[in-house]
Structures
1.
Amino acid sequence: MAEIVLEIPPRLDYLAVVRLVVATAASLDPPLPDSRLDDLRLAVTEACSNAIKAHRPEAADQPVVISCHLDEDLFRVQIRDRGPGFDPDALTRLPDPTDPNRLQHEPGLGIPLIKVLSDDVTFEPAGDGTIVSMTLKRPTAPPI
């Protein structure tokens, strides 16, 4: 298994670099299909945005760490922040995205999007922050 690690300052202007590095890593053999790359880019953007916003001011000199783990079957991205942590099951339930009342709630789509766009996702407390792990299945080689 190969691993690529990227450390960025907790600033939103680094999101384009994160998307580029993660998408490039996911394009390595065997590559994720283009439609799954789009899913990955959006999920990583949401997770990194949340990590940057949650980062504690007193940890401003600590990076947000993004690691990509590549093996033949899976592509996993982990994002670690230095925020206060949270319980994803305790988040306020919002109306379904197709419900017109959802328009009254601008924030709050990030975690549901991450869950829908990933094949598996976990949110783990990490002592001084949170680690979000997203996994996407790599395509299997067609039989010869």
2.
Amino acid sequence: MIRQEARSQMVFTLLIALVAILLLVGGQTLLKVGLNEIGGISLFEGNPVGSLLGLFRTPWIILGFVCYGVSAILWLDVLSKLDFSLAFPLVSLTYVFSLIIGRFIFHETVGLDRIVGVLLILGGLFFVVRSGR
């Protein structure tokens, strides 16, 4: 019975990790959308303070930072329950989601090299998660 309970806790923690990772990727996506909307920023030319302040008047960027914050809070829960050597490699799922978002939201060209690279990352992640049993 205790073994089943521990397994359920592990599955729940992995789900929390997935939500945190999705919020992290969502935050990055919203930041990119906001930067595209305002034409980017330049921190090393012109008026960097004005560029930074302009970020906080952009709803997409504000929402992106909110997603980051919620993700960080959820990630604290994950780190408190999983071994670091198991939890941190889970973040590599961001590569998978960012490839998909880059292709379908930002219409980026995604070549075979990127796809194979992401598949290799997933293969490595499979073994890391499997070792956590």
3.
Amino acid sequence: MIDQATWLSEENAYALAEKEDDCLFKGDGTSTYGGIQGVRSKLLGLAGAVDAASGHDTFAEIDASDLTTMMAALPQYAHANAKWYVSQTGYQLIFQALAQAVGGVTMLETGNVQLRSYSGYPIVISQKMPTSTGDLSDEVMLLFGDMSKAATLGDRRSITVKVDESRYLDYDQLAIQGTERFDIVVHDVGDAATVGCLVGLVGE
């Protein structure tokens, strides 16, 4: 027998978590994202939007100097819990490429599991960050900083599941709906003159 309750709860949780990540990283304040303005949109035009070197507008062109500039821009108080946030594409073309160029053992391995990190800071993979291998001019390509200090997720109502046995009666099927109510506020990314808890690298 298939454990349908577990399967459905996992599917609902995954779909809703994906929407939360959508809003956090890609939200532009429109109804598509429930009026939420995410970190990438919020950073543009602020002091925390760090320009890459001239001509560095693709992942493959980002180098160690660009990453060092990002780390230097982040205030000291945000370094204790800082992480990198990047897509799998960005991770392979930036961090893995830099590691391979150095040669030798460049990653800490524990129990045959490679821990993703760069310069001592963990790397978090999110496919809600840019995945294009092409021109990313004027876009926030990757993030660095303390997300827990920069943004807050409020859960007004946890996951609610409803079952309707009548809608698809002719097909001997059930309709199952999972919903939640949440909001995300990006509140500490600084302003036009001051860098906050998160910085983003903008393609040039």
4.
Amino acid sequence: MSVKGKTAVITGSNSGIGLGIAEVLAARGAKVAINSFSDTEEDHALAARIAKAHGTEVIYIQADMSKGDQCRALVETAAEKLGSVDILVNNAGIQFVSAIDEFPAEKWDAIIAINMSSTFHTTAAALPIMRRNGWGRVVNIASAHGLTASPFKGAYVAAKHGVVGFTKVTALETAREPITC
């Protein structure tokens, strides 16, 4: 399958796995929107470097993945600026390690929001665009913790299990369409 001419949005993509995915998709001819919570000159320079290296359009869009409205705005802005959203990669994630009875509530809320709820918000915003286009791909990054548990990682494990379950629901809801998850 070729992604040349397709448009991809990758959350949490100014470093690590997300950046690697952005580089590969750009190298294969996709237009790409990279994302993080920051909004620095370096973020925009990174997008420009990827674009120049691969001869495709790459933009940086700041959005805080802990905020549902910003997750949805990321997808809408990418569609507006790049003409579509054909591929959505839900990659953003954070981690915190602590025993359940000592786990700070604000860390729990942030991990659930960024690692799981953002996947719902971006997918909900992208599916109508994909349906209009008659094609789409949703890729959700979960890790081994989506299938198994480790001590002291309650929020992370809960969120990643949630992502796996949400992925299955999305796949079932789009099974009769040219959209895969």
